[in-house]
Amino acid sequence: MADTLRRLINTSPFGVLQGKLESWHRDYRILSCDQNLNKCCELIELTTSIQGQLFAILNITAAEGGDFDGLDTLKTRLLPWLGSCFALSRPSVTSDTSLQLIQESVEKDRRIRELSASHDSQMQKMDIELCSTRMQLDSVKAALADVQEELSKTKNKSATNLLASEDEILQLKADLQSAHEQLEMYKRKANSLDDYEQRIRQLREEFSCLSRSRSPASLSRVGRSSSSRRSESPTRAQLTNSSRHARLVSRFNDLYAAERLEAQALLHRYINHLETVQRIIFIAVVESFSAAKLAYRQFKLRTWKRLSPNHCGPESLEDASVDYIVRNLDLYDVKASVNDVIGAMNMNPQISFPPGVDFFLIGDLITETCKVAFAMQTLEPPLDISFASDGELYNESKYRRSYDSQFTAAVVKYHVWPALVEGDVVLIKGEAVTKRAALWNRGRSRSISPVRSHSLSPTRSLAFSGKRSLSPERLRASYL
Predict the structure, then answer these.
(1) Which of 255, 250, 385, 379 is nearest to 325 (CA)?
(2) 106 located within any domain
(3) What are phi and psi of 456, to 5 degrees?
(4) What's the distance, Cα to Cα, between the start and end of the chain in Å?
(5) Quick check: 2 pLDDT over 70?
(6) Does the pLDDT at position 216 exceed 80?
(7) Closest CA to 277 of 296, 262, 287, 291
(8) I need a surface site. Which of 100, 258, 346, 477 has the fewest CB within 10 A?
């Protein structure tokens, strides 16, 4: 009973009833009849609720009193009050009013049933939608798990490739370091050889001074003997042939290890296809050797014409010309050769280049290759690169396979770097890519490339056959 009484005190129903009575009293004049009746019914319902709670408390209190406690109070106060209430209320309720109340109750029950049925149908629909949403969520979770598994596999594969690339870079750095050490050793040898040559020249000058101080007869005799000996004495080019040979071979290795990789990285900014980049670099090296050999022949012809009127030395005109070229390598017009190389590459149907960019992008590689190739022509015998063509049989003595080759294939798809030869002897192996389908793709690789940039000549837009037309300089060189 104490709990019920406490809840009644906490809810303060009498305060609410008093507030509603005051509000109804203030608005009674301005409200309509229906509104006033609704206010009155609301107050009756609230009063009934309060009376129900009080009757519950009365019942609990009477039960706590036992069979006899509180009996007099119920007889003297509750029963007479109940009798007077029923006596007062009986005349106001008629049979019609009771029937109306029954009808309203039936109507309310029907509405309650309809709302309950509607609520049940809505709940079923929501259950169906919830099941469908759960199924979709499960499918999304499964797809997410597959994607995460694929992502983990890709990460593992990328990590493996990265480790392999790092190992290859470390190996290349080690090769480059050894090449630099060999270069320094050859430079020291060349410097010592230059000292020897200077000492020989000094001895020759002292010998010529001693010869001039003798008598005419002895002078003529000494002159004849010295001329015979001088004709057998080597020139500077012949004395430095071995050192220049070693230095140029080492420089060719540096071109492959340093300048080639720099040009490849530079081309990768504009061309994503590795095969196209490697083809461009290989053709640039081949054209550089061709242009340098042509420039050497022309330079040698001009040297012959310049030295022949005044030549009276013991060495032949050929040796004197080569010796002059060796001493004056800085007179080589390398810019003209670079222009010839880029012009030939623009005419080459095997390679293409993005619009807006030309082959001057790899001008450093072409320049250094032309210098090395020109200096190689002064050796005895001269050094050259081997002939190469797509679709040829792979030669183990001339090339080594690249890392992305098919090692069981016997046909070269394309070349990455040419082989350096001295006559028929291979000094440095080149690099080639071997594929089984290289013979079938050979005709496709010679398809006409589109116009690459604004720097291309108008003849580039013409149709090409399998052979490239020779430039005027190449036509003149073919008759030399």
Answers:
(1) 379
(2) no
(3) -75, 150
(4) 131
(5) no
(6) no
(7) 262
(8) 100
- Which tens digits make up the pLDDT trace of 9-41? 776 777 777 888 888 888 888 888 888 788 888
Residue 258, C-beta contacts closer than 8 angstroms, at least 6 positions apart? 176
Helix (H, G, I), strand (E, B) or coil at 415: strand
Does residue 338 lie in a domain region?
yes
Residue 139 lies in a domain: no
Residue 24 belongs to what domain range?
1-60
Task: Tell which of 9, 36, 60 closes a domain.
Answer: 60
pTM of the model: 0.46
The gap from C-alpha 277 to its chain's centroid, in whole angstroms, comes to 16
**Alpha carbon distance 170, 190 (integer Å):** 30
User: 3-state DSSP call for residue 23?
Assistant: helix
Q: What is the pLDDT of residues 82-122, one digit of tens each?
A: 777 655 545 454 545 656 766 777 788 788 888 888 888 89
Closest CA to 257 of 172, 170, 164: 172
Q: How many domains is the chain partitioned into structurally?
A: 2
At residue 319, does pLDDT exceed 50? yes
E-strand ranges in 331-462 read 384-385, 399-401, 412-417, 420-422, 425-428, 430-434
Gyration radius of the chain over CA positions: 55
pLDDT tens per residue, range 412-451: 999 999 999 999 999 999 999 998 864 444 444 433 333 3
CA angle, 277 then 390 then 283, to 5°: 40
Give dist(CA 362, CA 266) in Å, integer.
8
Residues 110, 115, 116: CA angle, nearest 5 degrees = 95
Distance CA 209, CA 222 (A): 12
Question: Both tokens of residue 106?
Answer: 């039936």
Least confident of 14-28, 134-148, 203-217, 336-350: 203-217
Whether the per-residue pLDDT at 379 is higher than 90: the answer is: yes
List Cβ neighbours of 52 (8 Å cut-off, separation of 6 or more).
Answer: none
Burial track 5-14 (b if 16+ CB lie within 10 A, e otherwise): eeebeeeeee
Is the distance from CB of 412 to CB of 398 less than 8 angstroms? no
Residues in Cβ contact with 317 at an 8 Å cutoff, skipping those fewer than 6 apart: 304, 307, 308, 311
User: Is 138 a member of any domain?
Assistant: no
Q: For 381-403, what is the mean pLDDT?
A: 92
Tokens of 421: 């030869």
Measured N-to-C along each axis, helices 274-307 and 260-267 cross at an angle, to the nearest 10 degrees, of 130
